[in-house]
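Note to self: user wants both folds in one dump. Writing first protein now.
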Amino acid sequence: MVNTKTGLAEEPSMKILIADDHWVVRESLKQVTKQLSRNFEPIEAADFNEALAILEQDRGIGLMLIDLIMPGFAEFDGLRILRSRFPEIPIVVISIHDDPEYVLDAISHGVIGYIPKTASAEEIIRSLTRVISGEVSFPRHIIERSGLEPGRGGRRGDADGGVDLDVLTSRERDVLALIGEGTPVSKIAIKLSISPQTVRVHLGNAMKKLDLKNREEAIHFAVNNVRALVGGS
């Protein structure tokens, strides 16, 4: 069955942890997840310690939405803790910050999405739809506002860290560059005049060549190296 609002096929049951110290924000996000799918089960945490306790007790959490400013959470130190202790759980940041450097710092810490709290319900739905579909969702308009781009180096997997992009074919570069720009697989297929399955094959081949262990690593490599990938095409 397809959700007529999002265009997504109804997803299997998924627990989504919503961590924010403001109950109004939690309630709003709960309503959004219910619009996405009746099979999603939102779970609430009002502070970081409560969120950690839930993650420790329930290994079935499939997605985490978290504010970077709340009791017990030291912003990027908190993200490092989460990525270290629960690397398998995708994280989307919900934040009042709309500063490009702040967004880029969140990306460098391994989140798969960043949603400003100023976003409308429709924008949040679009962002979460993309994340749940296996894509990333970052506010490119914020990143581009100051002319900054992901790829400042310092993370494992950055091209500046010694990865040889010449091992990639031009098509593999194209696919990774478009993924880094936040383009969904379906639109990459249309843009490159190939099938979605062929896009996935090129992505898989690129991952093997670059020693990227999973899709999340591939997405973050692409986001952090858009400029290098496009420049070498």
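First done. Writing the second protein, which came from a different request thread.
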Amino acid sequence: MPNLGAGEWLIILLVIVILFGSAKLPTLARSLGKSMRILKAETKGLHGDDDDEGRSAQQSQTTQAGAGAKGPQDAKGAQTPQSAQAKELQDRAARLRAEASRLDKEASKGDDGTTLNGVPLSDAERARRNS
């Protein structure tokens, strides 16, 4: 690639300013920066996915070797952080299900025919539902 001197760079910058205008240059620079950050994050994510696949293959081999165990455990029999995290997620899901059930019961308690999903019915709608 040929070496570009100061004069060539000035000409290139002048052409860019003429083509895009000085008002659009900051916007173009911002969008280029965002694109670079997204590209960098995606490439890191791809490298992380490769590492995760290797770890999951190791964990499945370990789990298959200790198939009689109740969950993943270390040499001392304590639960590994992955199983503790899974247990925590299961507990959270159970709490959310219980909360949803409670809210459904609460919503059905107050259903006296004057509201539909908490929105008051008009007189005409109420009369049509009652007949």
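Dump finished. Worth passing along: The first helix runs from residue 6 to 20.
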